[in-house]
Amino acid sequence: MRSVKGKEWYQADEVAQEYDSKRFSKGGRLIDRREKEAVLAALGPVEDKNVLEIACGTGRFTVMLAQEGANVVGLDISRAMMVQGREKAREAGVADRIEFLRGDAARLPFPDDHFDAVFAMRFFHLADTPAKFLAEMARVSKGQVFFDTFNDQSLRVAYNWLLPMGSRLYSENDVHRLLDDAGLELTDAKHDFVVPFGFYRKVPNGIARPFRSLDLTVGNSPVGDDIASVSYWNANVTGASEAESRATNRASDAE
Questions:
Q1: 33 lies in which domain range?
Q2: How confident is the model at residue 254 (pLDDT cuts 50, 70, 90)?
Q3: Cα dist. 52→23, 136, 159, 193, 205 in Å?
Q4: Is 2 within a domain?
Q5: What is the pLDDT of residue 17?
Q6: In the chain, helix, strand, coil percent, each to 5?
Q7: Is 184 a member of any domain?
Q8: φ/ψ of residue 82, rounded to 5
Q9: What would the pLDDT profile of 50-61 be if each residue is shown by its tens digit?
């Protein structure tokens, strides 16, 4: 994956070895659980689906989807991260359902309309050329594309400059332009985490839980979506919904 902020940092062996323990221990377990819920809710039943994950990292989503019955390709720039992912897959007994590939997200090595669904988590905040990446995701998907962004009107702004890899923040208009340019039609959007991820990672789980309850209360208020630090975007390739509907109707007529 080229044109990614901090890609040297991301590929370092020591970063890969400590990635999960630093981000998804303590209060970070709340983040891990919520992100996995978001992916499963968006992709729906995945049994026997062919799914591509961009920036699969250590394979926490890749393995989860394989356990749900999907056939998954995980693409990442970091060999060290994929070593961790392959080990997770072996331990979970799903290595036969996953293929890990090192590759460039701006030039995906797959033909058009190759996957049932394509998704990326924790990727677009690092992308210097998001339009190119999203266009490639749309090209290789038969229908669904799912991804998350960090938002520019949230508390994430307050500590963004401290991050070693930098971070790109998006407005809602930014995302809509990206979707339009990629030939994608938004089908659903969810907004979450008024309190940014960095806070949860720093505190014990017992402290994080009451903050998460408060976070959800504020998030469910009229201003919640406007100040959420994370958004989950679910989209279809333009025309895919109509094509699926026609196929369903043809099948019904044949019966």
A1: 7-254
A2: very low
A3: 23, 12, 31, 26, 32
A4: no
A5: 46
A6: 50, 20, 30
A7: yes
A8: -70, -25
A9: 999 999 999 999
Q: Is 154 domain-assigned?
A: yes
Number of CB atoms found within 10 A of residue 4's CB = 22
In whole angstroms, what is the distance from residue 51 CA to residue 121 CA? Answer: 14
What is the DSSP code (8-state) at residue 218? H
**Bigger pLDDT: 108 or 78?**
108
> Domain of 145: which CATH number?
3.40.50.150
Number of domains in the chain: 1
pLDDT of residue 158: 62
Distance CA 140, CA 128 (A): 20
- pLDDT, tens digit (0-9, with 9 covering 90-100), for 7-27: 554 444 444 444 554 555 566
Spatial CA neighbour of 100 closest among 130, 47, 61: 61
Find the radius of gyration of the CA atoms of the chain: 18
Amino acid of residue 21:
S
Residue 144 DSSP SS3:
strand
Q: Mean pLDDT over residues 33-62, rounded?
A: 95
Ramachandran sector of residue 26 (left: φ over 0; alpha: ψ -120 to 50; beta: rest): left
| Residue 80 CB neighbour total at 10 angstroms | 17
Structure tokens at 179: 């979707």
Distance, in Å, from the CA atom of 132 to the CA atom of 11, rounded to the nearest integer, reads: 21
128 domain residue, yes or no: yes
Rounded to 5 degrees, φ, ψ at 14 are -70, -30
- Specify the 3-state DSSP secondary structure of 166: coil
